[in-house]
């Protein structure tokens, strides 16, 4: 039986009538993802997104594909007022969370370096100024997000955020002056990294944007250690295989990128994200500990 979230789309997407089997992959308040089997025995991924999650196809159209990044093919997309459905290539059955082998995490680090190089090289050639402006998150944006955290009921007057507010502006200014803009996936985690014969394919670009920061590598390093006991040094070394950065500069980018990722994630959580993802309230104390650790590294 067709899941309820797709009922309004039945007459608009003929493929839904060809589905013989639905397998739930993920279900949140604003997102449901299924692997479906068709009458032809082919498989597809069908994704429903509500509210803020409904614009993922636009990100593929405007950013991911023009920047020539490794990502699933989009076959069809239909959007209604408050939701959208996307039919995608089934690019692989296993992700890094299911098969957390060290070799896969190291390749994911190399893939991240390659996609950032590609994005930077293609950004001004392939994207219009309007698209760049639409998806860019500026230095000022991150400082506003930090201010929002300090005004929130949950984190108002949090000591580490007050300390960070004093030192972060100069680091962000340096970052935005020295490091070229690239794409930030912002959810470059094991669950969104598919294992393929020829490497790793990132999926779920629904919250990606343009910025120079390297928060994606920060997240990947954290998970690689938790899942495969890989060290930061090993992951950084793999990243450097696919880019020409100096290690000291990369380590500084990791610190500032991690802070950017943490600020944006905390802002999302305290202003409604905890209502969308069950149990995510418990993430906040650990995220603040991570902010404290990175703050200590940059002062």
TrEMBL record:
InterPro entries: Aminoglycoside_PTrfase, Kinase-like_dom_sf. It comes from the Bacteria. Keywords: Kinase, Transferase. The keyword Kinase applies. Residues 63-243 form the Aminoglycoside phosphotransferase domain. GO terms for molecular function: kinase activity. This is Thiamine kinase-like enzyme. It comes from Fontibacillus solani. The lineage of its organism: Bacteria, Bacillati, Bacillota, Bacilli, Bacillales.
